[in-house]
Amino acid sequence: MRLGSLVVLCVVGCGSSAPKVASPTATSEPDPLAVGGDETCVRKGATIQCHGRALAQEQSEEIGAQKLELGFAQGARQIEIGDYHACAITASGGAVCWGYNAFGQLGDGTNEDRTSAVPVVGLTHVDAIAVGASHSCVRIAGDVWCWGGNLQGQLGDGADKDRFAPGKVLGGVRQLALGGWSSCVVKDDGAVLCWGDNARGKVGDGTTADRRVPTLVPGLVAAEVRVGEQHVCARTTDGGVSCWGGNDHGQLGDDAKKDRPAPAKVKGLAGVVQLALGGAHTCALLADHTVRCFGQGNYGQLGDGGHADSASPVTVSGLGDVVEIQAGDHHTCARLSKGGVRCWGKDDFGQLGDGGGANKGAPVVVLP
Q: Residue 149: how many CA atoms within 13 Å on its side-chain side?
């Protein structure tokens, strides 16, 4: 068992009152759960209790419970956690980011790492925010703006130069999602567009060439899209799911382990209301409030009690009242209708929040 000391990170001023991916529609209600990378955060009033690896430094070995006293926490509408940086929408509609910043992913006009949140340059009236491995994007009145790393074209501006401040990509967007070195959106008409890293077919256009501008994923009318490290899944308007990209662990749910550069329907899934994608696993929340997962399972991140991969959906043990799911790289969490959070999977940084440190193949209670 490896447990670190309590870390207090003061964002936007100590003493004054930081997937998950961007939600499909804007909301004024704060989201109480944020999961990403090797970290799990649960909001409790003006305090956000986080478990896992600190975001203050690249590849930090600091683990355990981190009590984040955030100046904007009580009113922040959304907090997004990546592998090494995080961003949030403040109560006033601005955006702030903190963590690793070598590629300008914090959007403050520099490439300096920040242990405290800094405002993203020039953004107001932000509706949704999302973070990838080295880039970030927001949606404002249907327009998408992105900044940060751009080696694979993930900023969608047709170039390969990093941006230290936001640049506009496209409009008419209903939902935004990032993961790894890729970006995807659902347009107002349900069309899905993706761009960036495409080495394993993650753009979904039938090729494996990186795309530096938004590119249509053929044949989909989607209600939601989610992006993992090497794969993408879309929830279609009929409650089904189609996935594409990397499939070495069966994360596309097609009973195979072969990469797919175009969407393939997940077998045995219907009535899906929300998706969550991790490093190489996929989870779906069903209308009956149960959860099914597939893909990489060696850390227990599928939640079925085992530690094996599955190329088809398996049911998460002991959960029947789930209202939200989110995934980190190798762990998954669920928020329950009556309050409380359950997590399962890898726990090497204490990200499951149960005070343990051992990987868990079934859901455990996140400690308050």
A: 21
